[in-house]
Each structure stands twice: as structure tokens, then as C-alpha cells.
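Meet my pick.
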Amino acid sequence: MIPFNKPFLTGKETDYITDAVVSGKISGNGKYTQLCQQFFENKFGIKKTLLTTSCTDALEMAAILIDIKEGDEVIMPSYTFVSTANAFVLRGAKIIFADSMPNHPNIDASKIESLITPKTKAIVPVHYAGVACDMDTIMNLAKKYNLFVIEDAAQAIDSYYTGKDGIKKALGSIGHLAAFSFHETRNIIAGEGGMLAINDEQFINRAEIIWEKGTNRSAFFRGEVDKYGWVDIGSSFLPSEIIAAFLWAQLENLEAIQKVRKQHWNAYYNQLLNWTKTNEIELPQVPNYATNNGHMFFLKCKSMEQRTALINKLKAKDTHPVFHYISLHSSPYYIDKHDGRSLPNTDTFTDTLVRLPLFYELDVQKVINYILE
């Protein structure tokens, strides 16, 4: 069987977990937590990072940090995972869904300004498949209207955006805040796990407090205060050192993992090029300002019926592609809360997008041969 995903282990995960256990420090914010955080800060130019138990938690921290309140509006794509919206709904926000681009599930940045009102508090671009949104346009709008930008970079580790100034920046390092995921379906994994990236210094001190259940415990351990207590709202966002130790083994092998994943992605693209043209199927598009991190390879079929037929034929070969998000604006929970605007591109991706298997140990040639047959 060829599954959609198979977690890849570098071989060092259990060694580092054992080391953490033997050290006697298995609660959060120990040696391996610090190693993971420093890796992101040094490699990707992020001012401060905090490891979390999930990307969802990182997004919830971001919502607290920008002080989302009842009645605030947050603009984001409808074609995303429910956590992107939930983090802000939990604080009382109204979600204003924007349509996707015609040729990519990312938010159509040209449609955002018309959605901004005096109640708008933030824009949340989601870098779908690790491909950058149009961050120049989004950051300029944020500056113009005094809004916050929170990048949902769940799928975007080791992917970059080149702005009109020619400067190449890592995704997650551009918005005021960002959130990463280390779920087992990502390029770099910890089973579960996430990270909050802080690029605006005004949030650093408070983020640590929220991260530590609303206490100034981190400052206490650094000797900055003589005792710690409850100073703000917060929750239990820290993962254990066991999760961090697993993650560190993955991060050490980032370049090797990325090399193989990109090779698989390129093999799909190059060998399916003619087949997709013949069958009126669209390959994934990567804009000139973006890079490809090999996170996901998807196809845009010409109809739901064609997608269903492709999935069924591959399943008959014991190969398991999958479709992806059901648009949030049409979901049972939010359909009555949505403002009724049509989001045609989002609905098209809901009906026609299919993801092919992509993982480190994949026999990609076998999947390609099945498709061409």
C-alpha cells in the first residue's frame, strides 16, 4: 500500500528523548526546547520563537497577544483548516472570509482591501502548500489601516518570499506574528507540536507570560524577578521536552529531508506535465515571488467527478490520494454567520483539488506510473 503520508524518522529521535528523560528535565522549556527555538531564530531571522503543543495553540496565543475582543473582525481565506479561524472565534471575533486566487488556494490579496472595515483587527494569510501569499500587498494594507498580520505558516517551514525590494525572507518572519506546525503530516514533525514566531518586539515579553500560563516564571528562572506569580491571562502552551527532543532530531536533518521532498515534487511536476494538459488538469503554480518547500503536491481537476474518478482509480492500485479542505464559509458551523458573499475560487478548490502522496520514503515513480496508466 502507498499511503498519503508516512512519518519519516531520522534515527536520532529516541536517542534525544532518552537523553531528555535521563537528564531529569522532561517538562517544558529545557535544553531541547531552547535548541529548537534558537534554530528557527538563527536560520530564519525570527526575533523570538516559543515552542507550543500545536500550531493551533500558537494561533490562539497570537489572538490573545493582539487582544482580540468580541466584535473584532479578522480577514482570512476560507480555504484553510478550521484552527485558523477557531483561534480568533474563541476570543469573540467575526471571521471575514476572502476568496482564493484563481490559480492557487492562497488568499487573493487583491480582494482584501474591500473587506476592511473600522472593526477589522487583523489579516491572517495562510501559506497553502508552503507557497507564499503576496506579502508585500498584505503588509502594505496592514500599515495603511493599522492592522496586525499573523502568518499561518503551518505548512511553510523553509519556504521564502522575495518582495519588491528584492530581499528574500523566510515565511513566518514577515508578519507581526506567525504560527508553525510540526504535525506528523508536515515536512518536519514531532507527532504534534507547533511554534509561535514573534517578529514585533512589543509582543515578546507578554508572549512568554501567556506561554507560561499567565505567570512571569521564565523571568524568574533568568533571575530577572525574585519570585513569580500570576500577572496576565495564559494557558498551558508549552510542550514537554520529549516532544522538543523528537523535533530537534528532525531539525538537524532539515536540509536532507527537504532535498528529497523537493525531488519528489519535481518528479511529479515534470512527468505529469503532458498528462495534465491532455486531461485538462492544472498543476500547482508557484508565483515568481515564492519558493517551493516540497510540502505538498496537488492537482486541480476540471470537475468533482474527474477528481473522484482519479482517486478511485488510484485506490484500486492501493495508492491513497486525498482531497483537502471543505470551505469554511460553507461549513455547518459558520454558514449562517458568513455574510453571504460568493467565493467561487474557494468553492472550486473544495470540489476539485486532490493531493498526491508525498513523504520522504515514497516510491514516487510508482505513483506516477499508476497515474499515467
